[in-house]
Write a structure and sequence with these properties.
Shape: globular
Largest sheet: 6 strands, antiparallel, barrel
Number of strands: 14
Radius of gyration: 16 Å
Protein name: Trypsin-like serine protease
Distance between the termini: 40 Å
Family: Belongs to the peptidase S1 family.
InterPro entries: Peptidase_S1, Peptidase_S1_PA, Peptidase_S1_PA_chymotrypsin, Peptidase_S1A, Trypsin_dom, TRYPSIN_HIS
Organism: Bradyrhizobium jicamae
Number of helices: 3
CATH superfamily of the largest domain: Trypsin-like serine proteases
Structural class: mainly beta
Strand content: 25-35%
Pfam families: Trypsin (PF00089)
Number of domains: 2
CATH class of the largest domain: Mainly Beta
Helix content: under 10%
Length: 253
């Protein structure tokens, strides 16, 4: 099967009526922070979330765009029919380690995609860093295209948002977010399959800014799945690399 057919096959699993949530009841959204969010599909059949930080630059998670596959951005037009946009270059942070992600351990899970043309109908989001020190209970917003029902690929593909709070011992290497109601002990709001690479926003004086990237999730009480903890890689240590790489590609901020 050709690369294009493999990527189109990945889109089939996303073609469905909108479902209810990121997981746990997050609302579908097209405006606000959602205007920067894009869907990334790969020739291995995977899909992830990314966020536009310049007209032709997308921020996502490194584990989403590993070497050995081709990647495209999906544009859903007014007719809701998916159209593929070419990715020209992929840059993965040199400090990224895949084994760390598999173990839910902090690593430089950050990557950039250079698009062949500006993403249609999208608006770049501001890039920032979390307020330091990051406080337990600090509020963040994630926006992703992942599944609303674990194991049901057809429930993905719609941009949804969720307001989460920091728990545990948040720091410059990792932030763990939970639903403010369930606190990670029962099913609640959180990232799921396809939300990897999703932007985590924090409100600043000038408005929402991307301060991290979704890297992993668990079910309630640390079980396998979704709706418990959402693991975020903050940009505190990686924003300079992101900005320098994007500027090398001609991006202006």
């Amino acid at each position: 099967m050709t690369t294009s057919r493999l990527i189109l096959a990945a889109l089939v699993s996303l073609a469905s009526a909108p479902a209810a949530a990121i997981v746990g009841g997050g609302a579908p959204q097209a405006d606000g922070v959602a205007r920067s969010v894009v869907t990334i599909v790969g020739s291995r059949g995977n899909f992830c979330t990314g966020a536009l930080i310049a007209p032709q630059v997308v921020l996502t998670a490194a584990h989403c765009v590993q070497p050995g596959a081709d990647y495209k951005i999906v544009d859903y037009g007014a007719d809701r029919q998916p159209k593929l946009q070419d990715v020209r270059t992929v840059a993965i942070h040199p400090g990224f380690r895949m084994q760390a992600i598999l173990n839910h351990v902090a690593t430089a899970d950050v990557a950039l995609l250079q698009l062949a043309a500006p993403a249609a109908g999208k608006a770049p989001a501001a890039l920032g860093m979390p307020d330091i020190p990051i406080q337990v209970g600090g509020r963040f917003t994630i926006a992703g295209v992942g599944v609303a029902v674990r194991g049901d690929g057809k429930s993905g593909g719609t941009i949804r948002v969720a307001g989460l709070i920091a728990t545990g011992k948040p720091g410059t290497l990792q932030i763990r977010l939970v639903d403010p109601v369930g606190q990670g002990t029962r099913d609640g709001l959180g990232a799921c399959t396809g939300d990897s690479g999703a932007p985590a926003f924090e409100d600043k004086q000038s408005g929402p800014a991307i301060v991290g990237v979704v890297s992993w999730s668990t079910g309630p009480n640390g079980t396998a799945g979704c709706g418990g903890i959402t693991g975020v890689t903050p940009l505190t240590l990686y924003r300079d690399w992101v900005m320098q790489t994007a500027r090398q590609w001609g991006a202006r901020f």
